[in-house]
Amino acid sequence: MSAEQSPKIVIVDESPIRAAILQEGLREAGFTQVVHISEMQSLLARIYAVDPEIILIDLENPSRDVLEAMFQVSRAVKRPIAMFVDQSDSASIQASVEAGVSAYIVDGLKKERIKPILDLCVSRFNAFAKLQEELERTKSQLEDRKVIERAKGILMKVKGLTEDEAYVLLRSTAMREKKKIGEIAQSIITASEMLK
Amino acid sequence: MTVPLRIGFIPLVDAAALIVAVDKGFAAAEGLDIELVREVSWSNVRDKLNIGLFDAAHLLAPVAIASSLGLGHVKVPIAAPFNLGINGNAITVSPALHAALMEEIDGDRFDPMVTAKALAKVVAKRRKAGAEPLTFGMTFPFSTHNYQLRFWMAAGGVDPDEDVRLVVLPPPYMVDSLKSGHVDAFCVGAPWNSVAVDLGIGHILHFVSDILVRAAEKVLAVRQVWAEKNPDTVAALVRAAVKAAAFIEDPENRTEAARILAQPERIGVDAEVIQRTLTGRLKISPDGTFRESGRYLLVGREEAGRPDPVQAAWLYAQMVRWGQTTLSPEGVKTAMAVFRSDLYDAALGRRPPEQPPAAFGAFAGPVFDPDNIRGHLEAFEVGRWKA
């Protein structure tokens, strides 16, 4: 795809990682004219300067409302319309809302050209969400491990147990109470701090 | 059997009746199991309501009307069986603009005509000095804030499209933008005006009740089709909101209501700041000056919860005045049909009240007549509409 054919795309996203993932995906698919805006101050002026044909914004960004103002006065850029205006493809609208991405498209841009871009965004957004989830999980596992270590230490000191015995006690209590071992460990720490 | 519902809201004090209905059990008592979803933009609330991800939503009254008219977006007919708030906004200005206005002021500084004329003088002075035009922040193109700012400044002879800049800003960004000088003033709902005053970076110039005595602000919105399919659920929702509104309005419950609203997953600001809004006693200046109004925000008293179609017609007239749509008899009819006083009355099993609801009490222009919007608009000098 030549530069002339490739539509100008602006990504409005405060998350640099997600924007990079999206940008890379778009480049791979042959969309070479992609600009990322991460600064929300004077957002409209920045968008006007690029004069894009497609604007992608994540739904968690409050600045979506700022973009809506472009429907009202649009002197500098060609008049954009929201992706939702075309209701003929409700499945892809639903998919994009669930993935958390919204698209604004300059009036007149053909639907066939938009569809692959939107599909790509949805899959990249979902991939990013998954990545984030894994990261959170790893973080909380690490956190749990630290808490368990401390709780073991307390049990060893207070009850004179070995490290293995302390762990077994934690685990069996967690199973009996149908709670996570990290939660039991946390309550031991809290209790011991209160009893200090 | 309980009915599960997903309802979107923006963290603002005028979502009070909705939040209290859920958190204080009024909704559960009506057989509703409501999941409240906190949103970050009006566009999200509107879209999620439109495509059915939300069953109902806390929505700007003009957005509900614009949606029914298909303005700026998809046409999805909306029904508003409950009015979530009357008034509640304020205009806050930077200390620099406040000082400039006070220098020009000639009369009572709480009189909006006096401040609007002072603004016109400040604007003229800046133009002469070659300074950048003043920038005013508001929340959405189809918002009460947009229309209230415009109504106010135009009365003093300031053209909101030519003499100043009006920009959309998400409410949580308002205070930062005032601080950074990105805007010189803004019109927004609670708690953001109070937050700016508390930080010492803003003065509350007007309560919106100075400009309009009674102005519909947010509605509880559902899709019209959905309302037709689920009349019992709509009625239950209205009753829960009416009870919650009555609870909030009882002065004895104010502290508890403020505490419920202050929760991090609801509005997430200090309960004391929320309470100021509910009682209508606001700190208006960083030096600690307070001002009290019995009309700051009406949640349920004076029939605030009953949607008034005349209010919808007034909002429609503002859309026409500022060139967002062209005047048509069908347009007026569609707009008025959004505010469903009939559903409200049916839910409570009562007849429409004999007394018509109190009028707008606009500080400028003739009394509003929904049957003669053209005549009404002709009375105003400044406007973008074509006759």
Structural features, described:
The complex is a heterodimer of chains A (196) and B (387). By secondary structure, chain A is an alpha/beta fold. Chain A has 2 domains: 9-133, D-Maltodextrin-Binding Protein, domain 2 (3-Layer(aba) Sandwich), CATH 3.40.190; 137-194, Winged helix-like DNA-binding domain superfamily/Winged helix DNA-binding domain (Arc Repressor Mutant, subunit A, Orthogonal Bundle), CATH 1.10.10. In chain A, 58% of the residues lie in helices and 11% in strands. Chain A contains 7 helices and 5 strands, in the order βαβαβαβαβααα. Chain A has a 5-stranded mixed sheet with strand order 2-1-3-5-4, sandwiched between helices. The radius of gyration of chain A is 25 Å and the shape is elongated. The N and C termini of chain A lie far apart (70 Å). Chain B is globular, with a radius of gyration of 20 Å. In chain B, the strands form 3 sheets. In chain B, strands 2-1-3-10-4-13 form a 6-stranded mixed sheet, with helices on both faces. With 387 residues, chain B is α/β, with parallel strands linked by helices. Chain B contains 18 helices and 13 strands. The N and C termini of chain B lie far apart (54 Å). The mean pLDDT of chain B is 95. In chain B, helix 1 crosses helix 12 (231-249), helix 5 (95-104) packs across helix 6 (112-128) and helix 15 crosses helix 16 (329-338). Chain B folds into 2 domains: 3-86 and 216-269 and 299-368, Periplasmic binding protein-like II (D-Maltodextrin-Binding Protein, domain 2, 3-Layer(aba) Sandwich); 89-211, D-Maltodextrin-Binding Protein, domain 2 (3-Layer(aba) Sandwich). Chain A binds chain B through residues 40-42, 44, 59-69, 71-73, 82, 84-85, 87, 90, 93-94, 97, 102, and chain B through 40-44, 47-48, 50-51, 53, 72-74, 139-141, 161, 167-173, 177, 180, 182, 324.
